[in-house]
Amino acid sequence: MIIIKYIILGIILVGTSYIGVIISKRYTTRVNELKELRKGLNYFEEKIKFTYEPIPDVFEEISKKLKPNIGEIFLRASRNMENENAGVAWENSVNISNCSLTNEDKDIIKGLAKMLGRTDIDGQVSEIRLTSKFLDVQIKEAENEKNKNEKLYKTLGVTVGLAIVIVLI
Question: Where do the domains of the chain lie?
């Protein structure tokens, strides 16, 4: 009977520690997704400047080069451009994305939709660069949050687990 009790207490401790790790990983995931998004925008800028390919084709190509969550934004936008204009397709794709991005991150990314497909190449390139600069600021903020909160949640998970174990003993 006492062995079962210690096994259950061990499971509780491991479980709360695991929850703390999962919560802390959101911060790392957000930083990685923002960097991946910036990489996609840089690639988009280069393709627009030098190849003159249609935006849906460029987005589809970018989606294959990026990690799945961010690549899905570009792929969905590319597919939606068949039925709607580029700006609306991009905005809708960002809205329904399954990422760790905050609403502020998404608002910055959706800012690209204002000029997407509506202006000449120089106008679109300048909008992409502006969005990239805003993303750089978001990446710095996300890294600061990660450094501050990642260790906090890991420690909190272990501490809560230990507190529960002590109470139950």
Answer: 2-168
The three-state secondary structure class of 34 is helix
Neighbours of 76 (CB within 10 A): 19
CA torsion angle 26 129 92 84 (round to 10)? -160
- Residue 93 in contact with residue 77, Cβ under 8 Å? yes
Q: For residues 76 and 60, give the distance between their C-alpha atoms in angstroms, rounded to a whole number.
A: 9
pLDDT single digits (tens) 96-121? 888 888 889 888 988 888 777 677 77
128-147 mean pLDDT: 92
CB 105 within 8 A of CB 134: no
For residue 3, report the phi and psi dihedrals to the nearest 5 degrees. Answer: -65, -40
Count of other CB atoms within 10 angstroms of residue 124: 21
Residue 79: count of CB within 10 angstroms of its CB = 15
State the pLDDT at residue 68.
Answer: 87
Under a CB-based contact definition with an 8 Å cutoff, are residues 103 and 96 in contact? Answer: no
Following CA atoms 160, 165, 168, 169 in sequence, which dihedral angle do they give, to the nearest 10 degrees? -150
